[in-house]
């Protein structure tokens, strides 16, 4: 393990514990709000591709209606087509609850990923945690991105990263993949800290 890997893991654990303590009320009140807004479950679990292509369960506070994935992939072909044309993103996604819109606007829905960081599945800073189907289909749609995928998957995905602080959902996949690959190729603790310092502004820009 390189000195960078050791430093990064120490930074990840420190940040995950510090943020969990600092925002402890979120762990208490947000699940209660979700429950009274739309019932159980309050945590959404999704399979994502991590380091070396190993899949893991990524956790979020649920911001969509129940069975949102089934609605998209099994029951609404028109919505699925729109989703794929939008680079696996939907503007004004009808599956998002009213409370979910607030959670997403404040990026609170991603708070449980701090648990993924403590487990070692993710880092605080890194490339996007992609879905396996997303990588496969997007690589077919944008063949020029195939050269980036192995590099992206050589490191842990992050809660925040270069594209999250440089355009978020407005960044198309081809550009996003290139940004993630460039981050991975040139990763350093200084670069990670720079992205961390940019993250609050990127969060506020969603309001």
* DSSP summary: helix tally: 10
The computed structural class is: mainly alpha
How many strand elements? 4
Total tally of structural domains: 1
Average of per-residue pLDDT values: 90
What proportion strand?
A: 5-15%
Write the element-wise H/E pattern from the N-terminal end onward.
HHEEHHHHEHHEHH
Morphology call = globular
What is the first-to-last residue Cα distance? Answer: 40 Å
Largest sheet: 2 strands, antiparallel
Which regions contain 5 or more consecutive residues with pLDDT less than 50? none
Q: Enumerate the strands of the largest sheet in spatial order, edge to edge or round the barrel.
A: 1-2
> Helical content, roughly?
40-55%
Oligomer: single chain
Q: Roughly how many Å is the radius of gyration?
A: 17 Å
Could you characterize what this model shows?
This protein has 207 residues and is mainly α. The protein is 55% helix and 10% strand. It has 10 helices and 4 strands. The longest helix has 20 residues, at 3-22. The chain is globular, with a radius of gyration of 17 Å.
Condensed summary:
A two-stranded antiparallel ribbon has the order 1-2. A two-stranded parallel ribbon has the order 3-4.
Keywords:
single chain, mainly alpha, two-stranded antiparallel ribbon
Topology, element by element:
Elements: H1 3-22, H2 24-38, E1 43-49, E2 55-61, H3 68-75, H4 77-85, H5 98-105, H6 113-119, E3 123-125, H7 132-141, H8 146-152, E4 158-160, H9 173-185, H10 189-204
Parallel strand pairs: 3-4
Antiparallel strand pairs: 1-2
């Amino acid at each position: 393990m390189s000195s960078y890997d050791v430093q990064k893991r120490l930074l990840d654990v420190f940040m995950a514990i510090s943020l969990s303590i600092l925002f402890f009320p979120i762990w208490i009140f947000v699940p209660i709000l979700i429950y009274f807004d739309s019932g159980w479950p309050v945590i959404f679990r999704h399979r994502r591709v991590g380091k070396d292509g190993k899949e893991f369960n990524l956790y979020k506070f649920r911001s969509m209606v129940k069975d949102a994935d089934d609605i998209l992939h099994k029951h609404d072909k028109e919505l699925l087509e729109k989703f794929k044309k939008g680079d696996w993103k939907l503007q004004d996604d009808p599956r998002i609850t009213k409370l979910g819109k607030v959670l997403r606007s404040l990026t609170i829905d991603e708070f449980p990923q701090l648990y993924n960081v403590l487990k070692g599945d993710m880092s605080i800073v890194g490339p996007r945690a992609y879905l396996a189907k997303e990588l496969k289909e997007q690589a077919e749609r944008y063949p020029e991105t195939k050269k980036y995928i192995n590099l992206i998957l050589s490191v842990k995905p992050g809660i925040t990263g270069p594209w999250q602080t440089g355009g978020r959902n407005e960044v198309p996949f081809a550009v996003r993949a290139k940004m993630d690959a460039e981050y991975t190729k040139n990763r350093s603790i200084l670069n990670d800290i720079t992205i961390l310092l940019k993250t609050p502004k990127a969060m506020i820009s969603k309001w």
